[in-house]
Design goal:
It holds the Pfam family YceI. Keywords: Signal. This is Polyisoprenoid-binding protein. By secondary structure, the chain is mainly β. It has one domain: Lipid/polyisoprenoid-binding, YceI-like (Lipocalin, Beta Barrel). The protein is 9% helix and 47% strand. The chain contains 2 helices and 10 strands; from the N terminus they run αβββββαβββββ. An 8-stranded antiparallel barrel has the order 1-4-5-6-7-8-9-10.
Length: 202
Amino acid sequence: MNRYLASALAAASLVVAAPIVAQQADTNAAAVQAGNYALDSAHTLVRFTVDHFGISEFFGTLPGASGTLSLDPKNLASAKLDVSVPVASVSTTNKTLDEELVGAEWFDAAQYPTMRFVSTKVVKTGASTADVTGNLTLHGVTKPVTLKASFKAANVNPMKKVYTLGFNAVGTIKRTEFGVTKYAPLVSDETQIAITAAFEKQ
């Protein structure tokens, strides 16, 4: 064997890919680092659920959110949240239905491409929970909505090496109040919203 090739193979055998090591996530909300955060779009998802003709529940997802969070755990009332979601990203795993939902009779993505939530008040309700009230703009209509948010954990993302916060939130809206009236009430007016979100410190 060529001695240069042998040397190269020997050196390669000593190279071991560095393992990805994650520290234990911190679930203590009071220990969160204060600062400004940007939404991690790749790890954030909005889900909506409706009752379908009284027979079953049906849900869809809205990926691709973007936004910002300003947070100080010592002064939670001062927190500011601004998140936008492209409604054309809607996915139900049914291509025909997805195309219908972005049309004029539902989300009307051509005219109203973005759903946006801007917080106006944050009230602490527990050690790791809060009610986040804000203005939700959907289908060209803006109305106040309250989301029940819970802090999941904080950690340095071992892949991106960025300090990251994780939250969940749930809420309920009546879609007809936002002008989305198709098939109501056969497809329920009341729409459940569930959000999982990650925010990266800037």
